[in-house]
Amino acid sequence: MVQVDVFWSYALGAGFAIAAHRQLAVPRVNDAAAPCAHAAPEWYTHHTFVSTVLFLATIFAPSGVCLLWAYPSWETMHVWDRSLWVWMVALFAITNITQGVLGYYVVYKLIRRGKLYWAYLQLPLGYFLMFFILVHGWDGTGYMRFFSSSKERFLNWDWTNIPAFFISDVGITLYIMGLVMIPVLLYLVGKWLYAGFAMAGTPAPASRMTIHKYFLQAVFVGGLGHAIAASLLIRWLGWGIGLAIFVVASFLIGWRRGGYLHKLAAKTLLPQGDRF
After folding, report:
1. How far apart are the first and last CA of the chain?
2. Residue 56, domain member (yes or no)
3. Among 97, 134, 166, 167, which residue's CB has the most CB atoms within a 10 Å radius?
4. Distance of CA 178 to the CA centre of its chain
5. DSSP 35
6. DSSP H helical segments within the chain, as ranges?
7. Residue 267: inside a domain
8. pLDDT for 29-53, tens place per residue?
């Protein structure tokens, strides 16, 4: 969705960079203290960045454009239709790549500064913002807009829209796209994390399934779970009180050092020394 993909793209770029955090922590070629035999290239020529851009440009961005062309009302959360300005379509396609590059770059810079946990948090943060738009949106109807395959269904909202969505043309299209996107995403994340473990001589988890489990927990617990909690508190208590309670509770439970996400990051990245 147009309103969602800007955050999703950021989360994708951040996720790829955090998966390659050990590789990106290697001194660069132009670092004076770096032994030439072991120095890494600049971040924008690193193979993980090139693969990230290829993923965004050949899989993620085209999928968004296809959805916008086929289902313009649904893809714009029923705000626009096919009369959408052409420059907005071009901007949407561009940001599906540039925001991913931004996510990768932010994580890279944090890694270079030794702030590995802050780098890791870009992953659940991006997914939280993405899911909050889907769950709550700007007017509390985010989930209604998502589960309505047409504008007519949204304007005449009924809970039967949800099961109907899963067998709609939109739903089936999403399944097909997911069959391509998700395996590639998980493959690259697992591959780069395992390569990083080998570089550092760090014991890796028994299987890549474990790595994928931790990664998906960050997405669906740190992202979707927090988005649902925020939406419910805002609905019950209003934006002011609800959001304030959510920020405090989510920090104490999940985001602070020693919280759920900090422990999940330690399991995922297995950091060494005191840089975490």
Report:
1. 35
2. yes
3. 134
4. 14
5. -
6. 2-19, 21-25, 47-55, 61-70, 72-75, 86-112, 116-135, 142-146, 151-155, 161-166, 169-200, 208-219, 226-250, 260-269
7. no
8. 655 555 554 566 688 899 999 999 9
